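Subject: Interface between my chains keeps coming out wrong

I've been trying for a while to get a sensible model of this assembly. When I model each chain on its own everything looks fine, but I need the whole thing in one frame so I can look at the contacts. Pasting all components below, labels as-is. Any help appreciated, I'm running out of ideas.
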Amino acid sequence: MEAIQELEGHTDRVWSVAWNPVASSSNRSVLASCGGDKTVRIWEGDCSDSSSSSSSSSWSCKAVIDSFKRTVRSCHWSPDGKLLATACFDGIGAVWEDVGGDYECVATLEGHENEMKSIAWSASGTLLATCGRDKSVWIWEMEAENDFQTVSVLNGHSQDVKTVLFHPTEDILVSSSYDNSIKVWAPDPNGDDWSCVQTLAEPNQGHSSTVWSVAFDADGKRMVSCSDDLLLVVWDTSTNPLESSWLSFIILLPLIFKFCLFRKHLCTLSGYHERTIYSVHWSRRSGLIASAAGDDAIRVFAEANDPSYTSRAVFSMVGKQQKAHSTDVNCVRWHPKDDDILASAGDDGLVKLWRILS
Amino acid sequence: MALQNANPVIHERKATRRQRPSIGDESAVEEIDALEHLRDIRDPEHPYSLEQLNVLAEEGIEVDDKQSSVLTLPRLRVRKIPGKLFVCGSWIILAVNKQLNDKERVVAAMENPYLAQTVRDCLAPLEEYE
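Reply #2:
Try treating it as a single job with all components included. I did that and got this:
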């Protein structure tokens, strides 16, 4: 891996970064970052530019949203790239739109009792999910233009919920928590409410400490989770029960029961990380998994077997950048279009862009 | 939260050791530095320091560089944040360990001005050594 850009501007740790999925193309990319300085910064530049001098670099900070009252923990672009959702420690979620270069708040989501930790858009762009230290997961639906109403308040986790993430194609939500478990939520058959359809915890070969984040592969057939227990776990989340070998003998299972989504453990990656793994991301294009950890390193993993062999998975580490940041790395995100580009955020207040060398 | 140790047994505070041991014995230097930093921290629930409450004693200190933490008897883990040592006054040991190691929760808690002031009050006796 080589560092191609260092984006300076934040005056405190950077918690998250997010690439705009539509605006980012081969010669112009848009990246949002948020952090402990209570700001969100929007950066724009060319990923093929690896000039180290800031005066000739194509990258610059195009906008700063600084009306937050507390740390902005997470940000997520809508699938159409037009809206940016933010999660703040003041417990309020916000949706921002670029209006002639300035970002304006077009909606707020209030309801959490304390710090909101994560916010995520569904694949359709009509639902938002939020979660926080109050142990709840909320689902919001866009009723009219920029008007979000609560659909469900989901209680189930026994502790602080760190991350929420929707499946890339289905209306299925995954949450991960300080209670060491991952929960899967789906709408009830009558569509009025959501409920927990599965919990992945230590008995299912899950984690033994806080699960900080999860990520799906390109088609959502697999998911990877990362934890304070220093492990990455890969799960089979394919929805077709007939593809899950251990279910194929249950011939009584009605095929119309769409929510037979029994996720199972596929692989555990252990012995690689020395400190808490804060973030993991699965490239939609290259299939590589990147991780960010408290040991200041970014690691990249690749599958070592035929991915169509669904009952097992073998991954190996193919890259490691030690001292990627001078302190903890909090987030990693693959570029949506360019296979080799990775963005990272660290406690050192920097956003860094990396190119994976083959 | 009700006081968990309403009638503490108070121990004598040993004199501060000013002389450093010989070079080469690096782990001993770190242990003594850790004790010097920690012994005077006041428990927020009592007007006594951790050493006076016998939570800390030189014999029980171990510096674990790999994990960036200092272990003391009875296994009160202190999180070493660059430049500062942070101690929580609660005696619920295992739950406290996980809380202290969760930097997101620590950062969020320190944004609470009341809690931040409580921590500053606990650490105030250290200022004379800085």
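Reply #3:
Confirming on my end. The CA atoms of residues 108 and 304 of chain A lie 44 Å apart.
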